[in-house]
């Protein structure tokens, strides 16, 4: 029996590929869909290697594929709800920063609170997102900025690490290795 619905995953991949088609990873010439794919691969790896406790693998994978659509494209909550269902739209909304809040700290606290109100499959996406983002920082980042980003990752791990042991371990390893940039 498959762990996830391949047709729904392909529909989300195609949707994300379309709405992110003109975007690049900031500071690079790499297509942004690469980031979307790596987050989804982290989640799929976690689902396939340790599926116990994951009640809805589709939710985790669909949210991974769609996690930046509201925040970074013209995609609306209603569009996601119509295409992928209420639970997926709510998960993606929770994973989207509220830029009305004035500070990064307030945005992070708000985001984590909204994510924690969702099923743990959504928590897994945030862990996977930060795992993939803890690559070497952009050249223009200072050591102070890199340290702040690493510290945010520690906060994320503390808040959401109970979602999945493998993702928590991977994020801790990335945090430990990221210290070289701080």
UniProtKB/TrEMBL annotation:
It comes from the Bacteria. Signal peptide: none annotated. This is Phosphohydrolase.
């Amino acid at each position: 029996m498959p762990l996830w619905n391949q047709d729904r995953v392909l529909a989300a991949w195609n949707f994300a590929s379309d709405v992110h088609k003109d975007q690049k990873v900031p500071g690079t010439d790499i297509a942004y869909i690469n980031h979307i794919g790596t987050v989804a691969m982290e989640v799929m790896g976690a689902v396939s290697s340790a599926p116990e406790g994951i009640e809805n693998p589709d939710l985790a994978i669909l949210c991974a594929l769609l996690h930046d659509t509201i925040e970074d494209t013209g995609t609306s909550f209603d569009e996601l709800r119509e295409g992928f269902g209420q639970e997926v739209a709510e998960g993606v909304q929770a994973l989207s920063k509220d830029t009305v809040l004035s500070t990064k700290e307030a945005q992070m606290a708000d985001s984590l609170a909204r994510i924690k109100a969702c099923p743990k499959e959504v928590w897994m996406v945030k862990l996977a997102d930060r795992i993939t983002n803890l690559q070497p920082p952009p050249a223009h980042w200072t050591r102070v900025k890199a340290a702040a980003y690493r510290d945010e990752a520690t906060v994320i791990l503390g808040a959401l690490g109970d979602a999945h042991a493998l993702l928590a371990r991977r994020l801790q390893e990335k945090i430990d290795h990221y210290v070289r940039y701080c």
